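Before relying on records like the one below, remember that each one covers exactly one chain. Contacts with other chains, cofactors or solvent are not represented anywhere in the record.
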Amino acid sequence: MPDLVPTCVWRATPGLVVALDDRFGEPVDAYVNGSQVWLRDDGPAGIALEWRLHPVPGFERPATVTTYDLFPSVALAVAQGEEPVAPVEALWDGLEVFAAYGDEVEPATLAAAATEALGIAPDAAGLADHVRIGDEWERSNGRISIVAALLDQLAGD
């Protein structure tokens, strides 16, 4: 029996990146695979949520920025109407949020709290099998879309 995690997902857009920067500021962590992460206590009843901006399949960081400078530089350029180092859609596939430490929360309750925190309703919400998606991503060497896999699973809810 898979361990299903209440999850919300947004497709990546320039407006989403600007909203993340405006509402949450710089990520608390950034990874060489392109992931950007925020940990915030804005879930239902103050539970901690993990917000993860997932990279596109086969992500390659632009050579002109560091791993930690990528998100802030792109968000600033987009917000100011300037050309970023790469288009948002060439860097990130979408945003996912879930309870950071496995707290129990209903998907609809999570979606309402996430919408309030970010100011944008998710494209999908439901239950996702993170282990299966993670295994598929690892087997493909990062060549599958985590966001597409999440959206496929959430469409089945």
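The chain has one domain: 4-155.
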